[in-house]
Design goal:
The chain has 500 residues and is of the alpha/beta class. The protein has helices at 38-56, 72-81, 85-102, 118-130, 159-164, 204-216, 230-245, 276-280, 291-298, 311-331, 339-361, 366-386, 390-407, 452-467, 471-483, and strands at 3-6, 11-14, 22-27, 60-65, 134-137, 140-143, 180-185, 200-202, 220-226, 250-256, 259-261, 264-265, 307-309, 416-418, 421-423, 487-490, 496-499. It has three domains: 3-257, 3-Layer(aba) Sandwich (Rossmann fold), CATH 3.40.50; 261-423, Isoleucyl-tRNA Synthetase, Domain 1; 441-499, no CATH class.
Length: 500
């Protein structure tokens, strides 16, 4: 039976859905003002595999993953680039979808946006005010945390301790230092909506409560996200949702661990911050990283533990996949077997299925599942050396394909190498696009978004200008890219990298 580590109770519990063989699951998605980094990739992959395993074991899964498309960071980015918030969010939602496609992440059943749920958000805030759990201060609406008596039960924090150690700027209008915004009064130049409290926009936490309850109901099975969301985001979601409905919000809370880079915390300040696109295109990682290699690597550590991202780890994942695809090539050949070897194959397949399910039933333990598949790979190779019938080979390949699909692996029959880049048929990967005709810096307005190929072309021209000591031209290109929100970082080895 499946058991899940429930952050709410702090222990592993048997999983029982509210409705037999039907699971409703909500996962907090991106705030869409920038490209996805490797931490986002891990979280997306964790819940993709959880969903896949639930479906594999016979559940119908209603999976909702939102987009936060109104937020302080989005407004700041839009103002910096002189464009609308919608322009920013549309750009990065499209980029997110492309990145998830490269990783083989299945689309959610619903992908709601906060801006499309203002009626639900306003109604939920109104309910909290009516129940005496929220109050309006000149157009700003706050949740009063000390009126919700079990505040802190998810994060295991006491309100008294939170107040004593609060690092929030004192707002004299708040009744309690930890009160949080449900609705924010509009400011000049910010997107705003009509409400009973005047023009304004929602706070971050209320958006997820409104969207999840709109699509999954007031009580659902699983709520997930990264460990960084436990407090305050998920704590506040529970308070406002349970406070409004008087019901349990989500029964099981699942949180994935952080990503480290060479055993250091990933951060922009340390210069070890990588987007998914950089890993595929511009980073110093292995030249032949594909979506499947990245998936294999990310699943090699249990989802709740820290994961160390390194070049060596990627190489190990690639080598492991090489071993599997070498085996699949052998299995595609016809062969002669014996009753004994074919029987041994059937036994190995049955044992693998049992142990794979046992591992995944233990809080989605993907390292165990992968180890089980590695053992089957070894066993099948030995049986092939002795001789396996064509039918037995098909059975073995189907077992890898079936169990691999739970992890998003092994759906192709062989590796293909094109121009030194590993290309796995049927598995999303990234190819460099040929440069378009030269971009003239005086013919492109700042409102025009440059493609990645155009940016790379400008970077190449700038490097060439620097080599020729044509520094005025190099500076002109740098300013041109900056006007489009592109920041260039020159590296000691003479190369450059860029970020939006």
């Amino acid at each position: 039976m499946l058991s899940i580590h429930n952050t709410l109770t702090g222990k592993k519990e048997p999983f029982e859905s509210l409705v037999p063989k039907f699971v409703r699951m909500y996962v907090c998605g991106m705030t869409v003002y920038d490209y996805c980094h490797i931490g986002h990739a891990r979280s997306a992959l964790v819940f993709d595999v959880i969903r896949r395993y639930l479906e594999f074991t016979g559940y119908h899964v209603e999976f909702v993953k939102n987009f936060t498309d109104v937020d302080d960071k989005i407004i700041k980015r839009a103002n910096e680039q002189g464009v609308s918030c919608e322009t920013i969010t549309t750009r990065f939602i499209e980029a997110y979808d492309a990145d998830m496609g490269k990783l083989g992440i299945k689309r959610a059943t619903a992908e709601p946006k906060a801006t499309e749920h203002m009626a639900e958000i306003i109604e939920l805030v109104s309910r909290l005010i009516q129940k005496g759990l929220a109050y309006d201060v000149a157009g700003d609406v706050y949740f009063q945390v000390d009126r919700y008596l079990t505040y802190g039960r998810l994060s295991k924090r006491r309100l008294e301790d939170l107040q004593a150690g609060a690092r929030v700027e004192v707002d004299e209008r708040k009744r309690h230092a930890m009160d949080f915004a449900l609705w924010k009064r509009s400011k000049p130049g910010e997107p705003s909506w009509e409400s009973p409290w005047g023009l304004g926009r929602p706070g971050w936490h209320i958006e997820c409560s409104a969207m999840s309850m709109r699509h999954l109901g007031e009580t659902f099975d699983i709520h997930g996200g990264g460990m960084d969301l436990i407090f305050p985001h998920h704590e506040n979601e529970i308070a406002q949702s349970c406070g409004a409905t008087g019901k349990e919000f989500a029964r099981y809370w699942i949180h994935n661990g952080f990503v480290q880079i060479n055993k250091e915390k990933m951060s922009k300040s340390l210069g070890n911050f990588f987007t998914i696109r950089e890993i595929f295109e511009k980073s110093e990682w292995s030249e032949d990283v594909t979506g499947e290699i990245l998936r294999y690597f990310l699943l090699s550590t249990h989802y709740r533990g820290p994961l160390d991202f390194s070049e060596q780890s990627l190489k190990e994942a690639k080598n492991a996949l090489n071993g599997f695809y070498d085996l699949f090539t052998r299995l595609a050949e016809t062969g002669q077997g014996s009753t004994e070897t074919d029987h041994d194959l059937q036994f190995a397949v049955g044992f693998t299925s049992e142990m794979f399910n046992r591992g995944m039933d233990d809080d989605f333990n993907t390292p165990v599942a992968i180890a089980v598949l590695q053992r089957l790979r070894s066993d099948v190779n030995k049986l092939l050396d002795k001789g396996l019938s064509t039918e037995a080979r098909k059975i073995a390949r189907e077992e890898f394909r079936s169990l691999g699909n739970v992890l998003g692996l092994f759906q192709s029959d062989k590796w293909q190498f094109v121009g030194g880049k590993v290309v796995t048929p049927g598995v999303a990967h990234l190819k460099l696009t040929p440069f378009p005709p030269t971009v003239k810096v005086d013919q492109v307005s700042p409102e025009t978004e440059l493609s990645e190929a155009q940016i790379e072309q400008q970077i190449a021209e700038r490097l060439d200008a620097k080599k020729k000591k044509n520094f005025p031209k190099a500076d002109e290109i740098r300013k041109f890219l900056a006007s489009h929100g592109i920041v260039i970082e020159d590296k000691p080895d003479g190369t450059s990298r860029w970020k939006r």
